[in-house]
Amino acid sequence: MENQDAKRARLLVEQWLVAHPERVLNRRRKPADLLNWKLAAIHSVRTGNPYDTDDILRWLATQAEGSAMED
After folding, report:
1. What is the mean pLDDT of each run of 10 residues along the chain (71 residues)?
2. Using CA atoms, how far apart are residues 65 and 2, in angstroms rounded to an integer?
């Protein structure tokens, strides 16, 4: 069972993805890649400053979209 922090982080990541459909497009094309990105994002949100959630997710998306991360 998911604890409250994990549930809150997962919901924040899902909401962010819905609000930013143009981000992490290369990950959205492959379900396994998107799942890995979500898991990393959830971990980062849980361990980061709660007031920096949007910044954390934007940074992770930028990293995923970078040329070094492209297939």
Report:
1. 87 96 90 94 93 94 74 50
2. 29
Q: Which H or E run includes 19?
A: helix 4-19
Enumerate residues 6+ apart whose C-beta is below 8 A from 16: 41, 53, 54, 57
Query: Does residue 3 sit in helix, strand or coil?
Result: coil
C-alpha count within 13 angstroms, C-beta hemisphere, residue 8: 10
Query: How does DSSP assign 34-67, residue by residue?
Result: HHHHHHHHHHHHHHS-GGGHHHHHHHHHHHHHST
pLDDT of residue 55: 95
